[in-house]
Prior knowledge:
By secondary structure, the protein is α/β, with parallel strands linked by helices. It has two domains: 35-120, Leucine Dehydrogenase, chain A, domain 1 (Rossmann fold), CATH 3.40.50; 144-264, Rossmann fold (3-Layer(aba) Sandwich), CATH 3.40.50.720. It has ten helices and nine strands. It has helices at residues 12-34, 49-64, 80-92, 111-116, 129-136, 145-156, 176-185, 200-205, 246-249, 263-283, and strands spanning 8-9, 39-45, 68-74, 98-101, 165-169, 189-193, 209-212, 230-233, 255-256. A six-stranded parallel beta sheet has the order 1-9-8-7-5-6. The protein has a three-stranded parallel beta sheet with strand order 3-2-4, with helices on both faces. α9 links the parallel β8 and β9 (255-256). The longest helix has 23 residues, at 12-34. The termini are far apart.
Amino acid sequence: xxxxxxxxxxxxxxxxxxxxxxxxxxxxxxxxxxxxxxxxxxxxxxxxxxxxxxxxxxxxxxxxxxxxxxxxxxxxxxxxxxxxxxxxxxxxxxxxxxxxxxxxxxxxxxxxxxxxxxxxxxxxxxxxxxxxxxxxxxxxxxxxxxxxxxxxxxxxxxxxxxxxxxxxxxxxxxxxxxxxxxxxxxxxxxxxxxxxxxxxxxxxxxxxxxxxxxxxxxxxxxxxxxxxxxxxxxxxxxxxxxxxxxxxxxxxxxxxxxxxxxxxxxxxxxxxxxxxxxxxxxxxxxx
Length: 287
C-alpha cells in the first residue's frame, strides 16, 4: 500500500438529501390520497442542550418533508410513570404516525420502560424490543435509524456484503446489535466487539467492513484497518471527531465515512423516511 492512496469518501449528505426528497414525495402522496398530513411526535425530557438541538433538527427535517412535527417537552424531574403515560397517550392517538423519544433521558427514568411504551407500528426510531426482534428475524420493521442508514450507504456504494467479514465495534441496543443483525441478514459474517474483547486490534484487522460505534474519539486506529477495507464511523464526539482515527484510516481503507457528513445525515433522513412509511401503512396508502 503506497502512501499516495486515499480512501474514497462516502457522502452521506448527498444520499440523505435524496432519501429526504423521496420521503417528501411519499408524504405528498399520502396527503393527496387521504387529506391527512403525517405527524411525528418528538418527546424531549429535561433541558439538555445537545438533545434540544437534535430535536429541533428533526422537527425541521420533518416540516421540510411536509410532515407535522409535534413537539412534547417534559420537565427534567419527570418520572418513568409520567413519561410512559405520555408515550402511551401518543401511541393511542391516530393523528400521530411516529414517536421518537430523544435519548438519553434523565437518570431517574427507566429508559427501556419508556421505549417499550412505543407501539411497534409507530416505532420509527427502531428502539423497542419488538422492533429489534423483527430485525433479527429479518421481518419487516422500521430498523434503528443509524444502522438502517448505514445499510443504505453501503448499498449506494455497492459494497459487496455477501460472504464478507464485518466487525462491529460496539454493542448498544440501538446501534451495534441491530447493525450486526442487518449485516447478518445480508449474508455477512459478523463479529461484534466491545470493551472486553481481547486483542481488539487483531479482530478488527480481519474485517472487510468495519463499523465503529463505541462512543470514544479516534478509538479505532489506522493500523487496525485491513488495506482496502470499508470503514463506517458511526461515532460523533466533541470537536467533530468520530470513533475512528480518520487521518490514519483514510490512508488504508478503500471507502470511509467522514465525520461529520457521513453517517449522521443518513440517520436523520432514515427517521423521516420511516415516518412516511409508517403513516402510509397506518392510512392504507401504497406507493
